Amino acid sequence: MSTGSERSAFVQFALNEGVLRFGSFVTKSGRTSPYFFNAGLFNSGASVGRLAQFYAQALVDSKLPFDMLFGPAYKGIPLATATAVALAAHPAMSGRAIDFAYNRKEAKDHGEGGVLVGAPLKGKVVIIDDVITAGTSVRESVEIIRAAGAEPCAVLIAMDRMERAGADGQLSPHSAVQEVHQRYGLPVVTIASLDDILVLLKENAEFAQHREAVLAYRARYGIQ
User: Fold this and answer.
1) 112 pLDDT above the threshold of 80
2) Class of domain 4-221 as given by CATH
3) Is 108 a catalytic residue?
4) Which residue in the list 63, 108, 124, 210 is annotated as catalytic?
5) DSSP of 81-133, one letter per residue?
6) Does the annotation mark 110 as catalytic?
7) What are the tens digits of pLDDT across the range 82-97?
């Protein structure tokens, strides 16, 4: 987990980039959410470079031992690439090079072939993605990493919505992040979470009018 100042800085950064927005948004699950976080809108060299620094710092702050990064197709590919660059330049890494790999959605039948691109999967591997929703990409990544004889050791994401899945009246007892932790025994490292968004709404008068709606949404769908 990032430090408090890092989490606050990331939420402000996401706001500035239009990645975090407040209003009324229909999510993929069909819920009407008072906020929206779309990491795909980090789409310039400068914003992805800064995003990668946040990922790198969160991983360093976690103090988890790791050997390389894995980015699940498709969103995880640029994230793993950029974060490997940021880690190589991080003072805490002492110039240590960080390998990375990613998968293709479809196997390639020419050239080097297969579904894996990048460094060979080995040692302790951190799976890096933007968010965890259904946990599908985590499951696929765990299977790929284990099949290669390596060990998935953590999942690193930008934002934890701290939200339960399922239809109203049939909500899952845990959030997607908690489900991943319980199912695979993997720590989930996050740059920020819904709690950090609520801190912003409490402290920043510009966005204070959205706080009650976000609190009501958390009361309805959030983990206890």
Assistant:
1) no
2) alpha beta
3) yes
4) 108
5) HHHHHHHHT-GGGTT---EEEEEEEEEE-STT-EEEEESPP-SEEEEE-S--S
6) yes
7) 999 999 999 999 989 9
